[in-house]
Design a protein that fits this description.
Layout: H1 10-20, E1 24-29, H2 35-39, E2 46-49, H3 53-61, H4 64-71, E3 83-87, H5 95-104, E4 109-114, H6 117-121, E5 133-138, H7 151-157, H8 161-164, H9 169-189, H10 197-210, H11 217-224, H12 228-240
Parallel strand pairs: 1-4, 1-5, 2-3, 3-4
């Protein structure tokens, strides 16, 4: 398995400064952009990943377990609050109520990571911790973080850390295909977000070709055979899953 040594991210200094001034952090980004790796650069007193089903189910059944575990942590000799890392919080959104309570009481500081704003926004009961966390968005490597030897190659294959760690270009294509398949299965099919996975898969191909240009919803709707409002909803899914970013016109 090809691996890549840790490459400092531009966000690291900003996150460190935020934590040092006693604030908690919400770090959002698409899958495999390096959120977990970045979070590991901070010395935590407790780190929990909700990726594992058994861990996730434990806290879904009893969110208050987290309260007891965090309150058992003692401040350091300087009275500094313990730092708690919670990875992939969108998988257990109910835990955010417990996190809010502990932030409000000054029990601990948190680094929360997530890869789907859609899951956090779904339902009015979800607590997005307004005013209690400083939110950052993590994208794949920028050119400042990882300069491109071949710009055309970078534009074609992107800059996800796991993809850049692969040297052979055919292997990159294979891994990117697997990335899309996993995204379709876990983010789209499993959540029953769209009725027809085939239409959405075709949309992904066309949306990729339209990237960086002005989007024509009606043109895409004719090519795929769905309504233009459905195409608009598809784009919203990409935005909520942090796969795409909308750039509004200046006029």
């Amino acid at each position: 398995m090809e691996t890549m040594k840790y490459i400092p991210r531009l966000l690291e200094g900003r996150i460190r400064h935020t934590i040092e001034r006693g604030k908690s952090v919400l770090l959002m980004g698409a899958r495999q952009t390096g959120k977990t790796t970045l979070a590991r650069q901070f010395k935590s007193d407790l780190s929990i990943s909700f990726v594992q089903p058994d861990v996730r189910q434990r806290y879904e059944k009893a969110p208050q377990l987290l309260k007891g575990e965090v309150e058992a942590l003692a401040p350091d000799v300087k009275g500094k609050r313990p730092l708690v890392i919670l990875d992939e919080i969108q998988k257990v959104p109910v835990i955010l109520d417990v996190v809010q309570d502990m932030i409000d009481r000054g029990v601990a500081n948190f680094i929360l990571t997530g890869s789907s704003a859609r899951k956090l926004r779904r339902g009015a009961q979800v607590n997005l911790l307004p005013g209690r966390v400083v939110a950052f968005r993590m994208d794949p490597f920028s050119l400042r973080e990882f300069p491109a030897k071949d710009l055309a190659e970078r534009l074609l294959y992107g800059s996800l850390p796991g993809i850049l760690a692969v040297q052979a270009l055919p292997d990159r294509e294979t891994d990117l295909g697997a990335y899309v398949t996993t995204y379709l299965e876990e983010e789209i099919r499993a959540e029953a977000v769209v009725r027809n996975i085939g239409d959405f898969a075709r949309f992904l191909e066309l949306a990729a070709s339209e990237s960086g240009g002005i989007i024509n919803l009606r043109k895409l709707s004719r090519e795929i055979g769905v309504s233009h409002t459905t195409i608009g909803a598809y784009y919203q899914i990409l935005e909520d899953c942090l796969i795409a970013e909308r750039i509004e016109p200046l006029t």
